[in-house]
Amino acid sequence: MAKGAIQRRNKPATTGWRDAAARGLRRIGGVLLLAVLAIGVGLWWAARWTPQRAQYPLQGVTLDASNGQVHWGSVKAAGADFAYLAATDGDSGVDPLYARNMAAARDAGVRTGPIHHYSLCRLATDQAANFIRHVPRRTDALPPVVWLDYDDRCPDRPTRALLLSELATFLAQIEAHMGKRSLIAPGAAFEADYKVTSGIARTTWLRRDFFEPDYGAHPWVMWQANHYLRIAGADGTVGWNVVRPEGTTP
């Protein structure tokens, strides 16, 4: 017994430390594995989630050239009642697939509307000219949307008064061309700085993934609820939108 006790006392001191380190690494590995699995499940869920159709009967998609050659029959089958398509950007940008998508969606029975990405670095009249040049007037088109976001390509930050004045000029010109009033779609940061929804009397389209947005001065009429969605017929992710049913309140 004395010999065994001596042998136990002579056991290398580093062995216990190594065992503890190995156990710690195994625990860390288990936590990391669970985190990776949770992220994977979250991404899987986000790529498939849309608001309940019973609550929002009218739902649609937002697409641009990054979604490739869209198969509109599949997009309609995925539940898109309408589509908003990126059309123009600033005073010269044009989505190369806008005309094709507009025609193909119409042939598939999906109504479309154009999106203009407004630039703080370009004159309103030049941007309106770009929009009018590339977006034809159609009586069956949905109202145009003015997308308002900051852009790393544009460092300008005009005063609120100047922005609202320029935006009013842009809206007046494209609405005269389209024959209908526009929607404005400010991002949360843009709205926080410029409070566009309280300065421009237009229907509001707000954006927040998975949770209803509340950052506008007025209740939203359109909500982009998920821009991580993947659907049959389009490459990559799309924006998924719902329309507030008439007669409902936020």
From TrEMBL:
Its EC number is 3.2.1.17. InterPro entries: GH, Glyco_hydro_25. It comes from the Bacteria. Keywords: Glycosidase, Hydrolase, Membrane, Transmembrane, Transmembrane helix. The keyword Transmembrane helix applies. One of its GO terms (molecular function) is lysozyme activity. One of its GO terms (biological process) is carbohydrate catabolic process. The chain crosses the membrane at residues 28-47. PANTHER family: LYSOZYME (PTHR34135:SF2). Belongs to the glycosyl hydrolase 25 family. This is Glycoside hydrolase, family 25. It comes from Sphingopyxis granuli.
